[in-house]
Specification:
The protein has 13 helices and 20 strands. The protein has three domains: about 5-115, no CATH class; about 125-260, NAD(P)-binding Rossmann-like Domain (Rossmann fold, 3-Layer(aba) Sandwich), CATH 3.40.50; about 290-455, 2-Layer Sandwich (Dihydrodipicolinate Reductase, domain 2). About 40% of the residues are buried. The radius of gyration is 23 Å and the shape is globular. The chain is α/β, with parallel strands linked by helices. The chain has helices spanning about 5-30, 45-55, 55-60, 65-80, 90-100, 105-115, 135-145, 170-180, 240, 290-305, 350-355, 390-405, 455-465, and strands spanning about 35, 40, 85-90, 125-130, 155-160, 190-195, 200, 205-210, 225-230, 250-255, 265, 280-285, 305-315, 340-345, 365-370, 375-390, 410-415, 430-435, 440-450, 475. β6 (about 190-195) and β7 form a beta hairpin. α1 (about 5-30) crosses α2 (about 45-55). The protein has a nine-stranded mixed β-sheet. Strands 14-15-13-16-19-18-17 form a seven-stranded mixed β-sheet.
Length: about 475
């Protein structure tokens, strides 16, 4: 292919991706339809991201999906009365082109494949969400909730609760939402309403409430009712502490974005969210590390069985460490985080058993905090009940990441060049680095990357949806 033909091909793909964008936006905003390509969400995707999503199809099926082949499916979808569902046009298009050679039957094919979602009853009322705390996880959750803004959105961010603020606090909070040193600028517009103590982000009106205790707020004063309170502070971790939220008028359920103590259910979305019942009013989304390793451990245990193992976490430093050497109540954490590797404890290995009881007592764990601001790695060393090899184990994990019910939690890379900064913004709970896999006989070691901020926040949103009964039909099955 000549240089001109390469450029012409790129131009055609770019223009096709641009033509998709308004259709994708309208489908979500007006009908609640999220469009994906083999699990890759296209909501608010740029033209380049749409093109990249098409290129990734080769990983799944061994062949290209061209934009000119998928675009008719987006057009056909926009003509159907499909509501409140996720539609994978990548899978639909690949399946169609295997048996057809022209576009004449696409609309009838789509109508048949998406019959369960056509005129789907939209009888689930939107639910109010309050973020209690607005640190690293709180702000990323805000970004994820705001990107879903639209008439059909069921998770509505109504307020954030902070400790009593000083003069200028509101603008500083807005600025932290607007700009992020790790995750980049906010995708849109952030304004401040000083008179009403609110932040307006992409049209989402977010009331800012100041309080020093979870039971001090009357949410009904702000027209907030039956709300899910997402506690990002990490201060209260047991039923007595988290239960204080439920004393505030307008609050109905609480989700903790940290490991919980006592009998509170620790949920890893994709693994045990089915354990959540309508009666559960306080739930934990476990930790970022537990979310990263549990889906992988489940996949391995399901096929090979795990006799025992050890998890070593190479974890980016966090806000509970000191920037420079100073007093800290915890061992070693008082030493400068940007200058030292710091050995510390992690309860993630033991916490796995709360989501995956069959591994109770089989895992140990430790952690090393390292001088990077985000993206961590779990090194999982296991003794298995059945023999395997590096190639066999990788092939199984690749198939798990692409085709299984865990495909939204586990990603897989075979790159020989990938490093931690490449995983910033990953929406997966964990990413298997296949080049580092070690397996021989019944012994296996896996290296799992994870964005301990953004990937974890995506998992938290899944738990939020489950707690509120906002499950979404995914097609094709």
């Amino acid at each position: 292919m000549s240089a001109d033909k390469h450029l012409q091909s790129w131009q055609e793909r770019f223009e096709m991706a641009e033509a998709m964008q308004p259709l994708l936006g309208k489908l979500y905003r007006n009908q609640g339809v999220e469009v994906m390509i083999y699990g890759k969400p296209l909501l608010n995707a740029s033209t380049i991201e749409i093109i990249k999503a098409h290129r990734l199809v080769r990983r799944h099926v061994g062949e290209k999906l061209r934009l000119r082949e998928s675009f008719p499916f987006v057009q056909a979808l926009s003509k159907l009365a499909v509501k409140q569902c996720r539609v994978d046009i990548g899978k639909l298009a690949v399946n169609y082109w295997r048996d057809h050679t022209d576009v004449s039957e696409i609309e009838s094919y789509m109508a048949k494949e998406l019959a369960d979602a056509i005129d789907h009853a939209d009888d689930v009322a939107p639910r109010d969400v309050v973020l209690y705390g607005f640190g690293r996880i709180g702000r990323l959750l805000a970004r994820l909730l705001i990107e879903r803004t639209g008439r059909s959105n069921k998770l509505r961010l109504r307020a954030i609760v902070l400790r009593g603020g000083k003069k200028g606090d509101l603008e500083k909070r807005a600025s932290l939402l607007r700009r992020d040193s790790v995750h980049g600028p906010f995708n849109g517009s952030v304004e401040v309403d000083e008179d009403n103590n609110a932040i307006i982000a992409n049209g989402t009106y977010i009331q800012v409430i100041y309080a020093n205790s979870p039971d001090e707020v009357d949410y009904t004063k702000y027209d907030i009712s039956d709300a899910l309170i997402v506690d990002n502070t990490g201060i209260w971790k047991d039923e007595a502490g988290l239960g204080l939220h439920l004393k505030s008028p307008g609050a109905s359920k609480v989700l903790l974005t940290a490991p919980a103590k006592g009998a509170i259910k620790n949920i890893v979305y994709g693994v045990n969210e089915g354990d959540i019942t309508a009666e559960d009013i306080i739930v934990s989304a476990a930790s970022c590390t537990t979310n990263a390793i549990t889906p992988v451990l489940k996949a391995v245990n399901d096929k090979y069985g795990i006799e025992n193992g050890h998890v070593e976490t190479i974890h980016s430093y966090t806000n509970d460490q000191n920037l420079i050497d100073n007093y800290h109540t915890a061992d070693r954490r008082g030493r400068s985080a940007p200058l030292n590797m710091v050995i510390t404890e992690t309860g993630a290995a033991k916490a796995v058993a709360k989501a995956l009881p069959e591994l109770a007592g089989k895992l140990t764990g430790n952690a090393i905090r390292v001088p990077t601001p985000n993206v961590s790695m779990a090194i999982i060393s296991m003794n298995l009940n059945a023999e395997t090899s590096k190639d066999e184990l990788n092939e199984y994990l690749k198939d798990t990441a692409l085709q299984s019910p865990l495909q939204n939690q586990i990603d897989y890379t075979d790159s020989t060049e990938i490093v931690s900064s490449d995983l910033v913004g990953s929406r997966y709970a964990g990413v298997i680095d296949s080049q580092a896999t070690i397996a021989e006989g019944k012994r296996a070691i896996l290296y799992v990357w994870y964005d301990n901020e953004f990937g974890y926040s995506c998992q938290v949103v899944g738990v939020m949806q489950t707690m509120l009964g906002l499950t979404t039909l995914s097609l094709p099955a």
